[in-house]
Structures are given as structure tokens and as C-alpha cells.
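User: Here's a structure from my thesis project, written as C-alpha cells. My advisor, Dr. K., wants to see whether a designed sequence matches the one we expressed. Can you design one independently, without my sequence as a hint?
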């Protein structure tokens, strides 16, 4: 699909912008990096080409900069958790959602069941699998079809075009997701989720199986950076009152058990997925999307982490740099000079 078909446009000047030039520089620098392994615990994910690689930046005024395999489709996986959390907040409000899912970082792997004990009555945060399943169970709808359609419509607003579920990945996750199913049953036993257990699990597997490309990731991130308004379509994707909630949990919990190091070194609200995607948000500035399927031991894209490190360092994108007025993204001087 051409960018014009999506309403996207690139800088049309003869000379490439400093941002585009820097993305090409990063792509060339990190394309040879072969560290990490493709996720294999979901059979369909194991089939992905490990050499795929793309970087995209979308500004809050709708400019798009991209390099690599930006049109390559893949499934959203855990990146979906941040957006489903926002949908649950819109459906029920902050106070109610906080009784069902906490906001505390765990330091444990994303699929840990250690903290699902009877005394807590809720998972620690919505970015781990248990918390995400609990969040998804909160999505309103009279039946599975209505809940699915509401979810697809929500993602359509963020992406800017119709959203689809990859049925092969969905069935693969549904068939092999025994650990997630065990978590759901344990949470049902503790009263953390209601008796629509199988229906909520299916919706969770469907959100993880949503098809996107790297450009979509950047548009979604830019929508959060733009107070919930999609910068390409100007459509409100989420009420602005809840954007801060989403970004706060992304900042503290979005990068699995690497979240503390990420916050210290890169300093951006972000969410990764075992698809190899990462979104990162620079509030009031840009959304970043990176896709590269080889993962580190935490489940984060190896190249993706490196790219975000370089972007944060080069343009002073860390939230504390933003607060101190040190962000250099808007400057016109080339970062390579």
C-alpha cells in the first residue's frame, strides 16, 4: 500500500531531512546486528523472517519518517496491552479499573504467575500477561462479537485504517496458550475476573493477533503523544484524560523486567512485544515505532532497544531532558554534523 493511500506524506524537499538521514544512518548501523532469537513459543511467530527491520517516526503534526520494511505486517502481541488498558479506563473509569488491576512494576517476567495470590485480589499491572487478561475481561459488550468489534474499532482510531486479526496467529495462540489459560483460571478462582473466562481469553488472544506494520506502530505512539488525537486523521482515539494513565504504566512497566533500566537510560513511555515491535512516546513531540524480530532475554527487540537508545541520546528525548527543555528533536541542524 502506498503512503498516499493512507494519507501519509514525507518531506518533499530535494535534500533529505536531518531526521530521515539519521534514521537511514541508524538502519545501516544496526542492520548487521544478529544478536537475539525470534520468539518460538508461539508456533506462528517462529516462522517470521528474523532479518526484517524497520524504523518509523511520526510527529504530532503528521510528518512521517521511515526506513526499512515499514509496510511489513506482523502481529501486535503485548503492545496491545497499553491500548486495551486505555479502553478499559474509558469503559469503567480510573477508580474501578484500579480495583481490578494495579500499577506496580513487578521485576518478574511478563508471564509470571508468582504474584497471583489470594490476598492481592488483582494482578500487579496491566502490562504483564495476568494483568492484561484481567484488563481485557473488563471490556464491555453484550457478547463476544460486540466486544471484538469494539476492540477493532478502537484500534482503527489509533491506526487510522481498518484493523484485522491474523486468524492463523490467533489459533496458534489459542491452541498453545496453556500458561495464560492457567493464569485466567487462577484469577477466576481468586475472584479477579468474572465467569466469561473463555470469552475473555479469546479476546486477549485476538488483541495480540492484530495485524500492524511499523508505520502503524509509530502512528499509534504519535496518537498518545498528541493527547489521544491521531495526527494523520485528526480523529480522537481515546479521551485525553486517560492518556496520562496509559503513558505512566508504559513508563514504569512497559518493557517487561527491563523496565527500570529502560526508564533510567532511555526515559520514554514504551511498550514492547514478542513480535519484535517497540513503540515509544515523546509527549507533545513524536511517536516512535521499531520492528525487528530478534529478541533479547527479556523478550524485547535487540535492534529496537538499540535504536531507541540512540534516538534518546542523540535528540535528548528522555523525559527529564524534556522537562529541562533540552530536547533537540525540533532543531534543524543535522545530528550527524
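Assistant: Designed independently from the structure alone:
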Amino acid at each position: 500500500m502506498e503512503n498516499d493511500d493512507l494519507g501519509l506524506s514525507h518531506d518533499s524537499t530535494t535534500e533529505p531531512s536531518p531526521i530521515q538521514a539519521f534514521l537511514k544512518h541508524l538502519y545501516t548501523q544496526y542492520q548487521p546486528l544478529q544478536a537475539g532469537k525470534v520468539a518460538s513459543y508461539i508456533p506462528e511467530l517462529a516462522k517470521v523472517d528474523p532479518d526484517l527491520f524497520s524504523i518509523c517516526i511520526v510527529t504530532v503534526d503528521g510528518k512521517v519518517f521511515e526506513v526499512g520494511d515499514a509496510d511489513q505486517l506482523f502481529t501486535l502481541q503485548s503492545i496491545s496491552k497499553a491500548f486495551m488498558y486505555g479502553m478499559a479506563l474509558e469503559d469503567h473509569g480510573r477508580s474501578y479499573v484500579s480495583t481490578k488491576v494495579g500499577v506496580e512494576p513487578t521485576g518478574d517476567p511478563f508471564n509470571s504467575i508468582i504474584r497471583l495470590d489470594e490476598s492481592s485480589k488483582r494482578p500487579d499491572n496491566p502490562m504483564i500477561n495476568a494483568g492484561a487478561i484481567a484488563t481485557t475481561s473488563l471490556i464491555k459488550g453484550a457478547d463476544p462479537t460486540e466486544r471484538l468489534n469494539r476492540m477493532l474499532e478502537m484500534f482503527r482510531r489509533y491506526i487510522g485504517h481498518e484493523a484485522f486479526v491474523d486468524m492463523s496467529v490467533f489459533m496458534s495462540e489459542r491452541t498453545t496458550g496453556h500458561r495464560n489459560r492457567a493464569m485466567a483460571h487462577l484469577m477466576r478462582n481468586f475472584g479477579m475476573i468474572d465467569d466469561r473466562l473463555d470469552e475473555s481469553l479469546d479476546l486477549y488472544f485476538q488483541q495480540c493477533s492484530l495485524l500492524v506494520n511499523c508505520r502503524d506502530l509509530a502512528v499509534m505512539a504519535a496518537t498518545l503523544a498528541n493527547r489521544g488525537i491521531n495526527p494523520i486523521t485528526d480523529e480522537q482515539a481515546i479521551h485525553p484524560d486517560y492518556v496520562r494513565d496509559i503513558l505512566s504504566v508504559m513508563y514504569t512497566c512497559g518493557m517487561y523486567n527491563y523496565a527500570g533500566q529502560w526508564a533510567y537510560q532511555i526515559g520514554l513511555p514504551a511498550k514492547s512485544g514478542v513480535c519484535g515491535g517497540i513503540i515509544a512516546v515523546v509527549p507533545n513531540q513524536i511517536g516512535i515505532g521499531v520492528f525487528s524480530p530478534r529478541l533479547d532475554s527479556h523478550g524485547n527487540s535487540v535492534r529496537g532497544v538499540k535504536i531507541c537508545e540512540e534516538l534518546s541520546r542523540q535528540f535528548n528525548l528522555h523525559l527529564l531532558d524534556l522537562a529541562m527543555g533540552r530536547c533537540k528533536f525540533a532543531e534543524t541542524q543535522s545530528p550527524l554534523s
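When you compare it with your expressed construct, this may help: The chain has two domains: 3-75+213-233+249-323, 78-208.
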